[in-house]
Every structure is written in C-alpha cells, then in structure tokens.
C-alpha cells in the first residue's frame, strides 16, 4: 500500500528534510483518500449495486432484476427522451447566447455591455427554485401575469404564453444555462493572447473574420467544457422541471426518480438506483468524449502583453445590440423578480387589488417557518464552510503530489459533477445505511448535510483550484527556506492571500445550499424541513403567495449577508492598507 501511495508523491532529493516531508504526505494521503472514498466513491459504488437490490432500508433485502425489467416502462423512456432533448436544445441555445454575450461584453462597443457580467453573476448565484416559481407566476396559462395582461388588452380569454410546457421548461432552463456558460466562455475570451489578434489584423484580416478564425477556435476548451456540463445538466434538471413540468405531466429523469421513490409503497429503490446509475454513466461518457476530442490538441497561447484591445465597432448594429442586451436581461432577470414581488403583495394569484402583506404575516406566523429557517441557516453555513475547507484542502494537497496523483485526486473530487441531486441522495442513502456505524445517520440533518456537500463540492473545488493557481509557489518556498514549517507557511503566506476567495466561495456555496430542493426532498423528514422544501410544499398546496413570500425572505437574507460580507471585506482592505502606509511612514 505504501508503495502505491509513494507513486503519487513528487520525487525530491533524498535529504532528511525531504524524506520527512514525503513521509508526512504519505500519512496525510491515506485519510484524504479515505474521506473522498467515503463521501463520493463508496456511495456511487453502492448506487450501482443498489440497482439490483430491493431496498437499502430493509434488513432482509434481496437481489432483484425488477429495475432492469421496468426500464421498458413508457414513462421511464419518455423521461429519458425529455431529458436528452432538454439537454441538447438548452446546450445549443445556451452556448450560442453565452458566446454572443461574452463577445458583446468583452469585445464590442455595445451600450449596456457592462451590465452583462454582474447580471450573469447574479443569475448564476440565485437558486434555481427562484426562477422556477418566478416564471410560473409570470406565464402560467391560468393566472400568469403576462396572460392576464394579454386578456385585459384584447378583451378575450386567450392564453398566449404557457410556461408549464416542454417549451417553457426549455426556455427557462436556457436562461440558467446562459448564465453558467457565460462565466466559462468570458474567461476564455480574456485569456486569449492579444498579439494573435494584432497579427491577424496587421495581415489585413478583418475584425469579424479574426473573431471567427482565431478567437472562436481558441475558445474550444471553454465552449466544449461548458457544453458537456450543460448536457449533463439536462439530465439533472429538477427544480424547474418539477415546478413547471408536473402540472403538464412532463418529467425529466430526475423528477421521474423522485416520483418513483414517492409514488409507490414500498419505494422502488432498484429502478431509481438504476436510472441514477445510467445518468452517471452517460455523464462520464460525455466527459471522456471531451477528453478524446480535445486531449491531443494544444490551445495554449504564449507571450504578448499587447496594447489594450480596441473594441469591435458595431456601427449601425450598436444600438440593436444594446436593445438585445437590455431586452434579454429584462426578460430573464427583471421580470421574474418583479413578478415574485408582485405575487406576494396580492391577495390571490390573478386577483389584482390593494396591496397586502398578509402572505408575509402568514408565513412568519407558521410554526414550521422558524424551524425551516434554522435548518437552512445551519446547512448553508455549515455545508458551505465545510465544503470550501475540503475543497481548499484537496486543491492545496494536490499541489504537492505528482501529476498522476494530483489528477486522480481532482477527478475523485469532481466526480459528483455527473451526479444529480436526487441521485446523490439515493447514493448517500445506499452508502451510509450499508455501514453499521453510520446507519444511525439516516433521517438526520447530518445525512442531509453530507448529501449537500457531495452536490456542491465539484464547484467548490473549481473555485479553490482557481484561487490557489494565482499564488506563486515561490512565496511559500521562501518562507520555508527561512525556517518556517509547511503549516506555518500556509497560515502566514497562503491563507491570507486566499481568504477573500475562500469567503466568496463560502458565500456562493451557502446560497446554493439554501436554495437546493432535491436533496432536502429526498433526505428530509419530520423536523428536517428546509426553506426550499417548504416553498415547494406551499406551492403544491396552492399557497403561491406564501411560497413567494418565503422565497423572497430567503433571498433578502442572502442579499443582506452578501452586502455585509462585501462591506466587511472593503473595510478590512482599507484597514490593512492603512496599516501598511503607517508602517512605511515610520
């Protein structure tokens, strides 16, 4: 075993200090892999095994092929068809729009281009449940604000918009895909060496031909990376699909799994586990396809601190591009926000009268609200902090390993990319109930927290790697050369430099946890309600105003926390810089 672990550690000169560092790495490597194995690898292994077992909750569970036989169920096959169609269409449309927005914000002189980045960040950080409920109130066929407006203007009973349809699910999901893909692609735009464009333009090639022949091919890793993730997201779609799809009888694989576990007694764990296993295998296959397509090609650009790149002059299209930006942001972001606010101030959906705060009062008076807020706060803060700490540990530890060892560690940590929240909940259930010492966690907030860590860890790891990549290793090495231990060099050098990114990642992870719906629905129970699950239950009961009020309350808390953190960070920077200036003057 020690020989296998040694292969993952970088070779160093055989000095006593080097041997001690290598021995310490080996001692830390085993528990690191133990944590990753317990959280990610073991549950996935048990998920595959569970595809042929009757139930994880029964002590006398047996082997079965019932799940395989039920794959022929037309409803199951239809859910796969919907998910694949959703993934393909939203990926094509989302990647195209995200590329256009990245071009407009980074390379054009379009009006409102500076609004794109902050708007996309807000849309990315906002929980998906917000968009699902907001667009349901905006354009459902019965009491949707847009349809009521059309009826009032035309004097007819016509229904022009129907978001509770496959087309509606595709449109709303595309808005989410655009925000996510934009953040991938805009980083690629900024990383392209400016001298390549300069050389192309000097050779007489026009601006747009340069964009087509130079820039877009160099964006292949960013575009394909975003495309693979969004294709998998089509199989993951839960919040939007269950809010907008269930009224129309439309189900994705994720909502079909939820239905299988909640509509039958006893739950059909074998079929649910098998569907989850197929989703994981499809996702892994897409990841391998990307590697085969791009693994042997180079997209590195070297050199060049060229002058500031002149924006593309859009000429007569400039204001058309500005109108496109403003219109999109109004439809994708402003409209659902205003609709959600409007719904909380009206007595009933579709009834427009005097403003009222009765929905806020009823939500605040409800006995479950305080419990839901408390559970959500504990999960958001605890899971967000623990997830980011684990992510930074993995990213920092991998820097001391060989290329093969670091790659294996990162692959294990990002494997949950392929796992939808509902599948993660099932996998965690199989994995932990099968271990005698951890079986008691079932039905507790701790197990829900573990499931949420699995869901957020891939994104936390990406943020941690990006933060640590900006710190030159020479800074840490200089501290160690002056006698500091590695632990001391981490706390004195690395930790202060990555603290802002750690806190930002903690905040983003906490917001994602607070808005997560699928894990609390499957791992929740008496006393384990969260705000997202309570919002969903209120919407099922037809208490849309109360659901919107509770969701706005959650968003308000998140916004206040974000603003407070931003102000504290600015104050800390000013105090630190002030101390530096005083030290320099003395």
Topology:
Layout lengths: L1 H5 L9 H35 L15 H4 L4 H34 L8 H10 L2 H12 L5 H10 L11 H26 L2 H9 L4 H12 L1 H17 L2 H6 L8 H11 L5 H26 L23 H27 L13 H8 L1 H32 L4 H12 L6 H13 L11 H25 L3 H9 L4 H30 L2 H6 L7 H10 L3 H42 L1
Would you mind describing this structure in some detail?
- Mean pLDDT is 79; it is low at 1-13 and 296-308.
- The chain has 25 helices and no strands.
- With 586 residues, the chain is mostly helical.
- It is globular and about 80 Å long.
- The protein has helices at residues 2-6, 16-50, 66-69, 74-107, 116-125, 128-139, 145-154, 166-191, 194-202, 207-218, 220-236, 239-244, 253-263, 269-294, 318-344, 358-365, 367-398, 403-414, 421-433, 445-469, 473-481, 486-515, 518-523, 531-540, 544-585.
Which key features would you list for this structure?
mainly alpha; disordered N terminus; 586 residues; globular; single chain
Helix content: over 70%
Structural class: mainly alpha
Shape: globular
Spell out the helices and strands N to C: HHHHHHHHHHHHHHHHHHHHHHHHH
Q: Helix count, per DSSP? A: 25
Report on the biggest sheet: none
Distance between the termini: 57 Å
Compute the number of strand runs: 0
Residue share in β-strands: under 5%
**Unreliable stretches, pLDDT < 50, 5 or more residues?**
1-13, 296-308
Mean pLDDT: 79
- Which radius of gyration do the C-alpha atoms yield? 26 Å
